[in-house]
Amino acid sequence: MARLNSSLLLFLSVNLLHLFHTAVSRGGQRDYSGFVDNSFAVSGRHLFEENRFQKLNNLAHGYMTNSDLEKAIKAFHGRCGRISRIYSIGKSVLGVPLWAMEISNKPGKEEAKPAFKFIGNVHGDEPVGRELLLLLANWLCDNYMKDPLATLIVDNVHLHLLPSMNPDGFSLRSRGNANNVDLNRDFPDQFFQMNDDLGERQPETKAIMNWIKKIRFTASASLHGGALVANYPWDGTQDKSKNYYACPDDEAFRYMAKLYSGSHYNMSQSREFKAGITNGAYWYPIYGGMQDWNYIYGGCFELTLEISDNKWPPANELHTIWQYNKRSMLDLVASLVKSGVHGRVFSSDCGEPLPASIAIKGINYTIKAGERFADYHRLLAPGHQYEVTAMMPGYKTRTTTIKMGEEATQLDFILEPTSSLLPRRPCKRSSMEILEVISKPHFQVALTLMLVLAFLCFLMKRKVISNHFRGRKAIGQRRVTAV
Ligand SMILES: *[C@@H]1O[C@H](CO)[C@@H](O)[C@H](O)[C@H]1NC(C)=O
Ligand SMILES: *[C@@H]1O[C@H](CO)[C@@H](O)[C@H](O)[C@H]1NC(C)=O
Ligand SMILES: [Zn+2]
């Protein structure tokens, strides 16, 4: 009888173990971490959690505490103030500031450049990302003007790093936040009515959503642990089935994910995931995740990166993990400059920047050019031809075909007002003012350019390609396309 009982207990525990494994998903579908030891099989879940806490607590040796992290961020800024800015995007449930660092040669300044964000420690018990982001920030600082990739990134991208989205979860050694909510399930979902109540939304989630509305990120990645794979949208399926569910930009996402895994020490050698990448829903569907929300509502191409099999490795392994991921992280950020199609949109009558919509034929996803500079940054998989269209109410739509090679393409649009009486944006500024906005330090270049533009507009009434506005010069890889 006693024997029966203990085997029943064992049976129940093993099942609990399975439950636990499927519950800790996206950012550790399975717990590879060695915390699941044999002692668990004869104890209950509660004991297990305590054991786990104890082990995580011991493992925290050598990791930054939340106050260490804040000090490290401030120290970074103290050292690298010329190319950085630090700010908080909000507070956690327990009132810990969510510190972010921006790295750029013009930190805090709005420019016609793409922005990228990395978010670490979404899950409290996956702390590798928060350490790596500090290493990344300091590496960029130390190598700016020395290493070509560091220089390319600092000069051409606004890179935002949020080392910890979940500082409370970190100090509690728990996956969820202080309210025990999994933050990667707390976003509004495209298929199911969930997380739609603003009052219920966690402060960490709110902070991220406001951040994305404020800054026009072109792409991003969140850092998780528990597997080694680059995961891309969609994360969920409409019918909850576990199937490959491609988003409109599947090709571009596969390209980005492959870029990450291919530059990683050994992610691409995965036996579990072909090429070290996976469609989220194909792996296992989740709902309310941050990744899909970014793509749908933020115009931001986000990957979910699982960067170590072990969720919470001993601190002496962090440096190696950083070395394994460093090139991937840099390459992913640099892809915003080295690939895709980029440009600005102007009106032909007064050169006003137009926040037009940019669409690609065959891809059901539209991005908007920026309000201020009318710049757009559209990631696209190389090796194809694309039909790019710029649309703006009150102006004639323009379409042109580009061949996307291995380098970025610059494509500016000049839109003509429609002859109809539709309301359109009036010429607000004089041309001198526009020149100032466009390019103060390169006044002569801009002046020549404007004269050429005016000339072509006048004589040919055709679309004109302009090039080499500020910030474009430094980009050797960029191919300029004329239409
Ligand atoms: C990658 O290398 C690490 C360290 O050597 C090893 O633990 C891991 O199993 C390797 N993963 C793959 C997919 O080869
Ligand atoms: C395009 O995507 C939207 C959602 O963003 C959807 O409502 C619409 O049906 C899609 N159109 C096509 C042709 O697939
Ligand atoms: Zn995770």
From TrEMBL:
Lineage summary: Eukaryota, Viridiplantae, Streptophyta, Embryophyta, Tracheophyta
Signal sequence region: 1-25
Entry superkingdom: Eukaryota
Annotated Gene Ontology cellular component terms: extracellular space
Ranges for domain Peptidase M14: 62-336
Protein name stated in the entry: Peptidase M14 domain-containing protein
SUPFAM superfamilies: Carboxypeptidase regulatory domain-like (SSF49464), Zn-dependent exopeptidases (SSF53187)
InterPro entries linked: CarboxyPept-like_regulatory, CARBOXYPEPT_ZN_1, CARBOXYPEPT_ZN_2, Peptidase_M14, Peptidase_M14_domain
Transmembrane segments: 442-460
Pfam families in the cross-refs: Peptidase_M14
GO molecular function: metallocarboxypeptidase activity; zinc ion binding
PROSITE patterns named among the record's database cross-references: CARBOXYPEPT_ZN_1, CARBOXYPEPT_ZN_2, PEPTIDASE_M14
Any one of the GO BP annotations: protein processing
Keyword tags: Carboxypeptidase, Glycoprotein, Hydrolase, Membrane, Metal-binding, Protease, Signal, Transmembrane, Transmembrane helix, Zinc
Cofactor: Zn(2+)
Active site: E306
Family named by the database record: Belongs to the peptidase M14 family.
